[in-house]
Structures are given as C-alpha cells and as structure tokens.
C-alpha cells in the first residue's frame, strides 16, 4: 500500500515515528526483561525525567493521553469533587466523558476564547467550599499549549498555582504537546511546571514523534502513593513497558523532543505567514506552537479537505484548525497554500 500523496494538516498524531525513536524500540527489542516496568529501561527513563523535572519527581508510564489525563485526575480527586477547566480543554471536548466516568467528578468548563484560564475567571466559581450541598472544587486543569494553540507564560501558571494553593485546590497540567510549549517559551520544562507550582502533569510524546506511550508525572510526590494500583485498575499498565520507557529516555536525553517540536513550531509560523498573504483568510488565534486557526469560506472546506485533510473547529463560523508536525516540510506548505489559493481564486 502506497503512502498518501499529500501529508495532512489535521493532527500531529497523524505523523509517523521519528527514526531515532523507532531505533530506540528496535534496540530495546533484545532478550527478555521483567515485564510491567521492573526493567532497566524504565529505571533509566525515570532517572532522566528527574533530570528534567526535579529530583522529587515520580513518573508512571501509561498507554494513552486520555489515560494519562483521567488517571492524573482520578489520583487526586474523590467523587464529590469538581475539576475546573477551559471549555475547549481536551478533558471536556475529546475524551468521550472518560474523566466523569472514571473519577465520578463534575467537570466545570469556563468559556475562554484563547483556551486559557485566569485566576479571575476561576475565582467566580470557588463558592460553597465546605458546604455539603455543593460539589467541592478540587482541581484546576490547564493545557500547555492550550487546544487553541496558545501558550501559558510561567507567570500565568504561577498565578493559577497560587490561587489553587490558597483555595485548597491542586493544579493539573495536560502536557500532551509540552515540548511545543517549551520551544515556544524557550524555557526548560521545569521552569513552567515544577517551579511554577504544577502538582500533576500529563506528559506526552506521541504527538511529537513517539510510536505510543504517555506519562503521569507527579511533581508533588506525596500525591503518588497509591497511583500504581489505579494504573492497573484502569488497564493502563503496559506489560512490555520497556518499549514505552526506551522511547521516553531517548526522546528526552537525545534532544529529539526539542528538534521535533522546534521544527513543527517553525512550520506553523511559516504556514501562518503564507496563508496570511491569501485574500479571504482570517487568522483567529496567535500562532505560538504548532497550530494555525483560521476562518475560511465554507464552500471550499470540503474540496480542500479532499486534497489536504484537516478538521473543522467551529462549523458555525467555518473556523478550521491546521496542525504541523515534526515531519511537515516547506514543500508540504507550498502545495497546501497553492491549493488553498486556487480554491479561493
């Protein structure tokens, strides 16, 4: 079966595996090791995570991004708690109710045109604390970058962490594309996670060149005590964990996380520059990571999707999302933009 003629712009999930990470899997595929994470590859990966996030870090590898988010939240909540997030958050929109089903919590979504939460927005919903008739806010969950492609600054995250601490809440970060945020900020992971007051992090690599595998990273290790039992109950304990661990260790230690994210971000900026020159296109969000959001004429969406697949973000306004990946090329962008301009002519 031949590969599609054009790379799509729907999601960085659609890209393949980076050769360095594929080689890491091949190298780990030698002999027998103890299953379920009791192996040298997992120990090495855990040590590497501590280099990036701090010596207190406790990390657990899981299979999927939804699994990482749901288990992060399940480990720090009870069924009478609430999780506050932006209305566009992945836990709200794209996880088929899994957070509610497996935590029993109420999700409180706040409108946010740019995908970000602020302390002021959240404070309006911190009422009824300690009153048994009301669900009890327990977690603030943010995405970094957001689902709108915007990036929180360390100061913005610290403000949310301070509000959480003062209100008896915890701060969770969905970092499925955390590498893209680090490149955008030109800062190490630790500076806007551990040092900014994040308690629990869902850290992903699948969107940035890994085959599969995500992680739950406890930056506040006191919250990790019973996590291994939750992971097993949730069917997220991989038997052949070495193939997740080996990828993560190389992903971090070799710097491929940075190179892949830097390239994807750069391609998004270049795409923004190119489509901004095309009449009839309205860019709706600042391009800070590897996503470009735009409003295009409704009549061209379907024929354009047949050439370069992408997702409609808001059908009522004809807003679309275009994602770039570690393997997006300038030639891909040229073909994409030429096709778009032709349809608009």
Mean pLDDT: 96
Content-based structural category: alpha/beta
Q: How many individual helices?
A: 13
- Reported by name, the CATH topology of the largest domain is Aspartate Aminotransferase, domain 2
Distance between the termini: 34 Å
Strand content: 15-25%
CATH H-level homologous superfamily name of the largest domain: Type I PLP-dependent aspartate aminotransferase-like (Major domain)
Number of domains: 2
Please give a structural write-up.
With 345 residues, this protein is an alpha/beta fold. The chain folds into 2 domains: 19-253, Aspartate Aminotransferase, domain 2 (3-Layer(aba) Sandwich); 256-344, Alpha-Beta Complex (Aspartate Aminotransferase, domain 1). The protein is built from 13 helices and 11 strands. The strands form 2 sheets. It has a 7-stranded mixed β-sheet with strand order 1-7-6-5-4-2-3, sandwiched between helices. The chain has a 4-stranded antiparallel β-sheet with strand order 8-9-11-10. The longest helix has 21 residues, at 256-276. The radius of gyration is 20 Å and the shape is globular. The model has no long low-confidence stretch (mean pLDDT 96).
């Amino acid at each position: 079966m031949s590969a599609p003629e054009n790379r799509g712009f729907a999601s960085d999930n659609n890209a393949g595996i980076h050769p360095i990470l594929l080689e890491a899997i091949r190298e780990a595929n030698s002999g027998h090791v103890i299953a379920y994470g009791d192996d040298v590859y997992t120990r090495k990966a855990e040590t590497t995570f501590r280099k990036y996030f701090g010596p207190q870090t406790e990390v657990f590898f899981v299979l999927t991004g939804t699994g990482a988010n749901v288990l992060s939240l399940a480990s720090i909540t009870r069924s009478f708690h609430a999780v506050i997030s932006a209305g566009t958050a992945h836990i709200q929109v794209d996880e088929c109710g899994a957070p509610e089903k497996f935590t029993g919590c109420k999700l409180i979504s706040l409108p946010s045109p740019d995908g970000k939460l602020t302390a002021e927005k959240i404070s309006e919903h911190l009422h009824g604390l300690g009153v048994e008739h009301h669900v009890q806010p327990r977690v603030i969950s943010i995405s970094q970058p957001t689902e709108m492609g915007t990036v929180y600054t360390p100061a913005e995250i610290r403000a949310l962490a301070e509000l959480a601490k003062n209100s008896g809440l915890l701060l969770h970060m969905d970092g499925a594309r955390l590498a893209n945020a680090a490149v955008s900020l030109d800062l190490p992971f630790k500076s806007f996670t551990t040092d900014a007051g994040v308690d629990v992090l869902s850290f992903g690599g699948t969107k940035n060149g890994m085959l599969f595998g995500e992680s739950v990273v406890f930056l506040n290790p006191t919250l990790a005590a019973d996590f291994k039992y939750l992971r097993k109950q949730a069917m997220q304990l991989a038997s052949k964990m070495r193939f997740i661990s080996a990828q993560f260790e190389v992903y971090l230690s070799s710097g491929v996380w940075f190179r892949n994210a830097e390239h994807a971000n750069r391609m998004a900026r270049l795409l923004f520059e190119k489509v901004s020159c095309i009449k009839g296109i309205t860019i709706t969000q600042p391009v800070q990571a590897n996503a470009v959001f735009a409003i295009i004429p409704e009549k061209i969406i379907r024929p354009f999707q047949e050439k370069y697949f992408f997702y409609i973000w808001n059908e009522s306004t004809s807003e679309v999302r275009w994602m770039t990946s570690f393997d997006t090329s300038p030639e891909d962008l040229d073909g994409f933009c030429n096709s778009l301009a032709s349809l608009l002519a």
